[in-house]
Amino acid sequence: MTLNPLSTEAAPRIDPAAVAFDIDGVVADTMRLFVDIVREEFRHGDLRYEDITSYRLDECLDLDAQIRDAVIDQLIEGSHRRPLEPIPGAPEVIARLSRLAGPVLFVTARPDARFIESWLHSVLPPSHNGIQVVATGDFDAKLEVLRRHEKAFFVEDRLETCFTLNDGGITPVVFRQPWNRQPHPFVEVGDWSELAALMALP
Predict the structure, then answer these.
(1) What is the C-alpha separation between 113 and 182, in angstroms, rounded?
(2) Which of 36, 50, 125, 169 could join 95 via S-S bond, C-beta 3.0 to 4.6 A?
(3) Residue 198: which H helix or E strand, with range?
(4) What is the pLDDT along the chain (202 residues), one digit of tens a residue?
(5) How far apart are the C-alpha atoms of 2 and 89, rounded to whole Å?
């Protein structure tokens, strides 16, 4: 298996009506906020974004489990003081996609959709044409949601989920992050401009 960065030869053309998206690490810059909270509130000033080399934080960070879990709780509940920022380009591309293909589907493994759905509405331009957020509470449950909504492509940052979706007939597109640098056979994008090019958005 080899990494497959975006290229005109390897990359499939994504039907805008057939794609759905993860949120954390794809649309929301959640891990960067995690780092900021740990550095500022818990005085771990040496922690860097690039240190998060695994989706399992206990495998890559020398961080007390109580601190880690407390910050994760803030992120899930939306109780953090610092704002959660969108990944650059995401709101604009999502708005373009929704105007072209209708409401955009987001599928998250968060246990509750309320905070993150409200956040999406707050960062998207007023011109967007609707979103739908499904919270599964389980990474593996994403496959059935995508099948039910007849989606063929899913943009995801967690490699384990990409393999599960691929085995289930959904084509994953890896959104490049420090924690998904292991070998994989999937097309990947490094930013939202590359993703927009795959969808050939006007």
Answers:
(1) 29
(2) 125
(3) helix 192-199
(4) 334 544 444 567 899 999 999 999 999 999 999 999 999 999 888 999 999 999 999 999 999 999 999 999 999 999 999 999 999 999 999 999 999 999 999 999 999 999 999 999 999 998 788 999 999 999 999 999 999 999 999 999 999 999 999 999 999 999 999 999 999 999 999 999 999 999 988 8
(5) 27
